[in-house]
Write a structure and sequence with these properties.
33% of the residues lie in helices and 33% in strands. 18% of the residues are buried. Strand 20 (362-366) and strand 21 (370-375) form a beta hairpin. The protein contains 4 helices and 23 strands. It is α+β, with helices and mostly antiparallel strands. It has helices spanning 2-11, 15-70, 133-168, 174-206; strands at residues 73-74, 76-77, 80-81, 85-102, 108-113, 120-121, 126-131, 209-211, 216-221, 228-229, 241-256, 268-272, 281-292, 298-305, 317-325, 331-334, 338-341, 344-351, 355-360, 362-366, 370-375, 383-384, 398-399. Among the domains are: 73-84 and 329-399, conserved putative lor/sdh protein from methanococcus maripaludis s2 fold, CATH 2.40.420; 133-207, Helix hairpin bin (Helix Hairpins, Orthogonal Bundle); 246-325, Efflux pump adaptor protein, beta barrel domain (Elongation Factor Tu (Ef-tu), domain 3, Beta Barrel).
Length: 410
């Protein structure tokens, strides 16, 4: 009964009261949906704003990278200071200090020779003997003529003395005395002439022995026993021996005109020969010709080298290393830094780390991969490596990063 009464009461309740009762539950669900909607809109806005911002940053970075890539990147190097001394290598011709052919001074037949090629001789040593009978006979005849002249002189002297004594007593005329004195003077002159002729023939006879004129080595013997010898060095005559003084030796070199002002007596030179690998012989610049050859544009220079050990041979080819003091401050650059222009040789340098400048330079010696610069640089410049032809004066550049990348650890 109680249940039926409750159901009836609910059925009799007005509809407006039921609606008023369910209102609070519907309002709470709408507020929740509004909050969720706002959160979603805010999230979408954040995502959109972040996307736009990141894209703007990416565009700005891309633009910056594009501008940086538009500026050419260059690698630079600093000039290396040149050595205070420069060494030049020149071919040399080794010659004896004294060299002479030996000819005969008298004619005849070779009687005997005492030295052969390679023999060391001293000054005044007999090299050979010549048999010259004609000279011996002429000397013998000259001595006889001298004896006759001396006898005539003695008689003329006695006659002159007698006439002078007779003149004191007026036994002879003055004319006779003068004739006697004149005959005496003539006889005396004849004796002197005969003595000179004998001396000449004695000298000719002494030439039968051939002597060494100085200490040296016999480098040639061009005669033999029994050979007919003609005197002198002209006509059909030929040299008997050839002698060379081999200590010290002379080395002749031709110094280029560019280096000629640096050549001074006393300058050290090192000599290298192929037959003595790894060994250097020390020489000294003795003298130069003092004039540039018109044909080769070189200065003939003599270098003296000690040869007391007799290891060096005249006529040898030798490399002469000369260490010359550098007259100016020089620098060395790789050949790849050079720019060849119609106006001359140039290098590109970077000023203030960003601006390019073209500097004319004057080259010196060429070392292959490197070249010497003798003018145009101070030494503190940043010189561009491998410059392109498009680089011009005032071009803005950037320095390339030449640092090595870090290695990853395993």
């Amino acid at each position: 009964m109680g249940v039926v009464s409750n159901q009836r009461d609910q059925a009799e309740t007005p509809a407006s009261e039921r609606a008023h009762y369910s209102g609070p539950s519907s309002s709470g669900g709408g507020a929740m949906r509004a909050v969720l909607l706002l959160i979603m809109v805010a999230a979408i806005a954040v995502v959109v704003i972040w996307g736009i911002s990141s894209r703007h940053k990416a565009n700005a970075q891309l633009s910056q990278e594009t501008q940086e890539l538009a500026v050419p990147a260059v690698s630079t190097i600093h000039p290396k200071p040149g050595a205070p001394q420069q060494e030049i290598v020149l071919p040399g011709d080794m010659q004896p200090f004294t060299d002479a052919p030996i000819f005969a001074r008298t004619s005849g037949y070779l009687k005997k020779w005492y030295v052969d090629i390679g023999a060391s001789v001293k000054a005044g040593q007999v090299l050979a003997e010549i048999d010259s009978p004609e000279v011996d006979q002429q000397l013998q005849a000259a001595r006889a003529d001298l004896a006759t002249a001396q006898a005539n002189l003695s008689l003329a002297e006695i006659t002159s003395t007698r006439y002078k004594d007779l003149l004191k007593t007026d036994s002879v005329a003055q004319q006779d005395v003068d004739n006697a004195n004149g005959n005496y003077e003539a006889r005396r002159t004849t004796v002197e002439s005969a003595q000179a002729n004998v001396k000449r023939l004695q000298d000719m006879q002494s030439f039968e022995k051939v002597y060494a004129p100085f200490d040296g080595v016999i480098t040639a013997r061009n005669t033999d026993i029994g050979q007919l010898i003609d005197s002198g060095s002209g006509g059909t005559s030929h040299e008997l021996f050839h002698i060379a003084a081999v200590n010290p030796l002379r080395v002749y070199i031709n110094v280029p005109q560019l280096n000629s002002p640096l050549i001074r007596p006393g300058l050290r030179a090192d000599l290298i020969l192929a037959e003595f690998p790894g060994r250097r012989f020390e020489g000294t610049v003795a003298r130069s010709s003092g004039a540039i050859d018109n044909t080769t544009r070189t200065l003939l220079t003599e270098v003296d080298v000690d040869n007391s050990s007799r290891l060096l041979k005249p006529g040898s080819y030798v490399e002469v290393h000369l260490k010359l003091p550098s007259p100016v401050n020089t620098f060395t650059l790789p050949v790849s830094t050079l720019i060849f222009k119609a106006s001359g040789l140039q290098v590109a340098i970077v000023k203030n780390g960003k601006t390019l400048a073209l500097v004319p330079v004057i080259p010196g010696r060429d070392f292959g991969t490197d070249i010497e610069i003798i003018a145009g640089l101070k030494g503190d410049e940043s010189v561009v490596m491998n410059p392109s032809d498009s680089l011009t004066e005032g071009t803005v550049v950037r320095l390339a990063d030449t640092s090595a990348p870090a290695q990853r650890k395993p």
